[in-house]
Amino acid sequence: MRRALRYLAPLIAAFAAVLTLSTSALAGTVTPGGPFTAATSPWVIGNPVSGVDITCGTLDLGGTLMSSSTPVIGHVSSATATMCSGPAGLTFTMTFLGLPWTVNETTYNATTGVATGTLTGFRVQLSGICKATIAGPGGAGAGGTLGWSHSNSVPQTLTATSGSLVLYNVTGCLGLLNNGNAVTVGTSAYTLSPPQSIS
């Protein structure tokens, strides 16, 4: 019996660790929560295929964060990008689609105080001489997914990571942007107001 318990103990500990991680991914605590803004400057759309970047002076997001018994800890209800331009003198107006987007928490490390998650539903239409839609891999009408991380040691900062996003409905872009190109967006630090604790 003692030998069996000796072999079972590591398995029980491993199961408990997995259970803890699973539980932390199912719920989130946000303080103070409520209405928030997140801003970054500059905001860059990158096209690794052509090497072309579209740079906006600022991106401002607004929405609501909340504690939850599910992974959903908030929504982004507004998005505004300003002064967007690319090569060859191209200028763009950005129209963000599919709002509100959903803020999900997927992991939290209590040792480091770092939470990670996703922003789902992202789509944006680029207008001007060059026109295109950036959306998820499911098509121009499919929301894309972006990643984020947040450290409670720097509560006023949210770091964005790009997800799987694709160009659709490209016209007038002089070969600088092309249908089916994978793109990156906004891989930068955002200033959160008010600062938030996420766990």
Question: How would you characterize the overall build of this protein?
Answer:
With 199 residues, the protein is mainly beta. It has one helix at 2-24, and strands at residues 30-31, 34-40, 43-47, 52-65, 72-85, 91-97, 101-109, 114-127, 131-135, 144-151, 157-161, 165-171, 182-185, 189-193, 197-198. The strands form two sheets. Strands 2, 3, 4, 5, 6, 7, 8, 9, 10, 11, 12, 13 and 14 form a 13-stranded antiparallel sheet that branches. The chain has a two-stranded antiparallel sheet with strand order 1-15. The radius of gyration is 20 Å and the shape is elongated.
Tally of separate helices: 1
- What is the residue-mean pLDDT, rounded to a whole number? 88
Uncertain runs with pLDDT below 50, 5 residues or more?
A: 1-25
Straight-line N-to-C gap:
40 Å
Rounded Rg = 20 Å
Structural class from helices and strands? mainly beta
How many DSSP-defined strands?
A: 15
Helix percentage range: 10-25%
Net shape = elongated
Q: Could you give a short account of the major beta sheet?
A: 13 strands, antiparallel
Beta-strand percent range = over 45%
- Run of helices and strands: HEEEEEEEEEEEEEEE
Keywords:
1 helix; two-stranded antiparallel ribbon; 199 residues; single chain; mainly beta; 13-stranded antiparallel sheet
